[in-house]
Automatic annotation (TrEMBL):
Keyword Magnesium (UniProt): yes
Co-factor(s): Mg(2+)
Protein function: Involved in mRNA degradation. Catalyzes the phosphorolysis of single-stranded polyribonucleotides processively in the 3'- to 5'-direction.
Pfam families: KH_1, PNPase, RNase_PH, RNase_PH_C, S1
Organism field: Desulfofundulus luciae
Location of the region described as Disordered in the Swiss-Prot/TrEMBL record: 707-731
Protein family membership: Belongs to the polyribonucleotide nucleotidyltransferase family.
PANTHER family in the record: POLYRIBONUCLEOTIDE NUCLEOTIDYLTRANSFERASE, POLYRIBONUCLEOTIDE NUCLEOTIDYLTRANSFERASE 1, MITOCHONDRIAL
Protein name in the entry: Polyribonucleotide nucleotidyltransferase
Biased composition (Basic residues): 720-731
E.C. number: 2.7.7.8
Keywords assigned by UniProt, alphabetized: Cytoplasm, Magnesium, Metal-binding, Nucleotidyltransferase, RNA-binding, Transferase
Catalytic activity entry: RNA(n+1) + phosphate = RNA(n) + a ribonucleoside 5'-diphosphate
């Protein structure tokens, strides 16, 4: 048998080589591409089931992003020592790949498609998620899977006023934004960004800049497929069996359904029905329609309902495009009524309740010591983080029931988006040495709960007295597009997200954007639409910010009385072992005696956390005593520990927990300005006296002087002592 060929193609992205290879590994997958970008290596495979998955009404696409800790030379933590459930970064990376490719499969495709990206080697200067995204596009494109791509993807940074493609680690540290752009040759499919209050025009410029490189990547992948086909390494696309409604059912149902539902939707608009009332009313209309056609088309209830729902979608979209009115009666740029409440929970460190229409989020903030930071066990360089935002979406928020399990991809994705939006305004550890955890509880959901979380969490942060740099708000934008007709919607609700073409979330301060996420259901949108959406989103964001500031115009001047007070000091790193003590004996005793939490960093920074300020102060005094150095020339108040013929030993820094303090010798000649014959005439053991550090002897022992710490004696006293000396001599 002839040896199978291997195809390797190379292009430059961001000044580094990107290499695609197929034909060497994973030969039984539908498509397999080994991507190398710098020293980052990712294997991406794409495989489709041979049969249709029955009983579903969605496209069953799965994207698995498999992190392997050997890629960065790590052994997994924990007892089992192997990778377990995916990290949050892995879940977010999988979502990043899924979102731009999902709209590019044929509508009605029900064959399962699985994309697996296995991270084999990581060079921190070359992001594995971007290599995986490009690899997924290439693997799908060379497979038989009916993928209507390819796509490309890049990260755009903003460094020293210049856009940078796929910034290196050093560039990323200086960059004002981390903007991921993915799309086809013709349009942008997905945008995701974290930014440091970057203005809209710079964000838009970054998207345009990134899309130009995306076009080059798309062309590169298309050429890769052509060469792979010529070598027998790519497959011809198959024509899948698509789920379709019986044409007879569609023809019979469409007319009556259009008439009935047009009237029903108009009533919803005129009466401004809320979500529950609208759904109940429309469900009743749809149920009657289904019943009226069941006799004609027995056992085709699902097909009848599918036609009815397709008609409903067209009607709602037509009202938006032709009459400029939404199903709840709002104008296209109108925001639902907003309510903001701060400090509604008495014992938490900070809380905020944000309500927009029927979307309601309760956010709660908790402050902890630095040691409470989250430990990260993934492929990144960061080992911990001190700011966390978690998002919970219980079933009652939509009036439903379902099992309550651990956070899913939605919860992790929405929590990360809100965290990204708020992180740029969180004060640094040097000025606010706390670990901060925010939890957003979705109490009621009717669209854009992630942006509701941003708003509620901003209120909670200010209620907690955290000195954030600026308040942040977020708004979700929507799009309805039919040929040349385009409508951009501000503050979309659930039905508009479901029936629309775009979910575009924008968060930021009055100065600029801090986070952005765009998902598209159609094959891309133009930059002109993006520009209009960003401008309309800014108006909405500023309106919401004003509503927040009316309730809480600035962070509270004081922390909650239930929040820990953290004081910090810096000690000589060489003295850390003295504070910790043998086997941690000393630090444990300090904690037990005072009830505080203590964190000591390798560079000598010490953080003491306690709800009781007096306890924190006591712990600080103990640590200062342990680490205090005696400075020559300084005055100290000390305790006489021993008395000898030649002087007195004085402890100027007390010991703690059985450990010796720091003591020195006051020679008899330094006890007083006058001559002292017996040490006991001036001091005795247990006395507290004032002394001055005057130096160290040849063996490093501390020398002290009581005489130099005292004011000069009056002339009369000095004369008396001289006379006494004379009398003693005559005797």
């Amino acid at each position: 048998m002839a040896e199978k060929p291997i195809l390797i193609k190379e292009m430059e992205i961001g000044g580094r080589s990107l290499q695609l290879e197929t034909g060497r590994v994973a030969g039984q997958a539908g498509g397999a591409v080994l991507v190398r970008y710098g020293d980052t290596v990712v294997l991406v495979t794409a495989t489709m089931s041979k049969t249709v998955r029955e009983g579903i009404d969605f496209f069953p696409l799965t994207v698995d992003y498999e992190e392997r800790l050997y890629a960065v030379g790590k052994i997994p933590g924990g007892f089992i020592k192997r990778e377990g459930r995916p990290s949050e970064k892995a879940i977010l990376s999988g979502r990043l790949i899924d979102r731009p490719i999902r709209p590019l499969f044929p509508k009605g495709c029900r064959n399962e498609v699985q994309v697996v990206a296995t991270i084999l080697s990581v060079d921190q200067d070359n992001a594995p998620e971007i290599a995986a995204m490009i690899g997924a596009s290439a693997a799908l494109h060379i497979s038989e899977i009916p993928f209507q791509g390819p796509i490309g993807g890049v990260i755009v940074g903003l460094v020293d006023g210049e856009y940078v493609i796929n910034p290196t680690l050093a560039q990323a540290e200086k960059s004002l934004m981390h903007l991921v752009v993915a799309g086809t040759r013709d349009a942008v499919m997905m945008v995701e960004a974290g930014a440091k209050e970057v203005p809209e025009d710079q964000i838009l410029g970054g998207i345009t800049f990134g899309h130009e490189k995306v076009k080059e990547i798309v062309e590169f992948i298309e050429n890769f497929r052509e060469e792979a086909l010529a070598l027998g390494l790519a497959k011809e696309k198959i024509t899948p069996v698509l789920a379709q409604v019986d044409p007879q059912v569609e023809e019979a149902v469409s007319g009556p359904a259009t008439e009935e539902l047009t009237a029903a939707v108009r009533q919803c608009i005129e009466r401004r029905l809320d979500k529950q009332a609208r759904e109940a009313f429309l469900d009743e209309v749809k149920a009657k329609l289904v019943e009226s056609f069941q006799e004609t088309f027995p056992e085709q209830e699902q097909s009848i309902l599918a036609v009815i729902e397709a008609v409903e979608k067209k009607i709602v979209r037509r009202f938006i495009l032709e009459e400029g009115v939404r199903i709840d009666g709002r104008a296209l740029d109108e925001i639902r009524p907003i309510s903001v409440e701060a400090g509604i929970l008495p014992r938490t460190h900070g809380s905020g309740l944000f309500t927009r229409g029927q979307t309601q989020v309760l956010s709660v903030v908790t402050l902890g010591a630095i040691s409470d930071e989250q430990i990260l066990d993934d492929l990144g360089i960061e080992e911990a983080k001190r700011f966390m935002h978690h998002y919970n979406f219980p079933p009652y928020s939509t009036g439903e029931t379902r099992p309550m399990r651990s956070p899913g991809r939605r919860e992790i994705g929405h929590g990360a988006l809100a965290e990204r939006a708020l992180e740029p305004v969180i004060p640094g550890e040097e000025t606010f040495p706390y670990t901060i955890r925010l939890v957003s509880e979705v109490l009621s959901s009717n669209g854009s709960t992630s942006m509701g979380s941003v708003c509620g969490s901003c209120v909670a942060l200010m209620d907690a007295g955290i000195p954030i740099k600026a308040p942040v708000a977020g708004v979700a934008m929507g799009l309805v597009k039919e040929e040349d007709k385009v409508a951009i919607l501000t503050d979309i609700q659930g039905i508009e997200d479901h029936l629309g073409d775009m979910d575009f979330k924008v968060a930021g301060t009055a100065r600029g954007i801090t986070a952005l996420q765009m998902d598209i259901k159609i094959p891309g949108i133009s930059e002109d639409i993006l520009e209009k959406a960003l401008a309309q989103a800014r108006e909405g964001r500023l309106y919401i910010l004003n509503k927040i500031l009316e309730v809480i115009p600035a962070p509270r001047p004081e922390l909650s009385p239930y929040a820990p007070r953290i004081i910090h000091t810096t000690i000589d790193p060489d003295k850390i072992r003295e504070v910790i003590g043998p086997g941690g004996k000393v630090i444990k005793k300090i904690i037990d005696e005072t009830g505080v939490e203590i964190d000591i960093e390798d560079d000598g920074r010490v953080y003491i956390a306690a709800v009781d300020p007096a306890a924190a102060k006591r712990a600080l005094e103990i640590i200062e005593n342990i680490t205090k150095d005696v400075v020559v020339g300084e005055i100290y108040t000390g305790k006489v520990t021993r008395v000898t013929d030649f002087g007195a030993f004085v402890e100027v820094v007390p010991g703690v927990f059985g450990m010796p303090g720091k003591e020195g010798l006051v020679h008899i000649s330094h006890l007083a300005h006058h001559r002292v014959n017996r040490v006991e005439d001036v001091v005795k053991e247990g006395d507290t006296i004032v002394v001055k550090a005057i130096g160290f002897d040849n063996q490093g022992r501390l020398k002290l002087s009581r005489k130099e710490a005292l004011p000069p004696e009056p002339r009369e006293a000095a004369t008396y002592h001289r006379r006494s000396k004379g009398r003693q001599g005559r005797h």
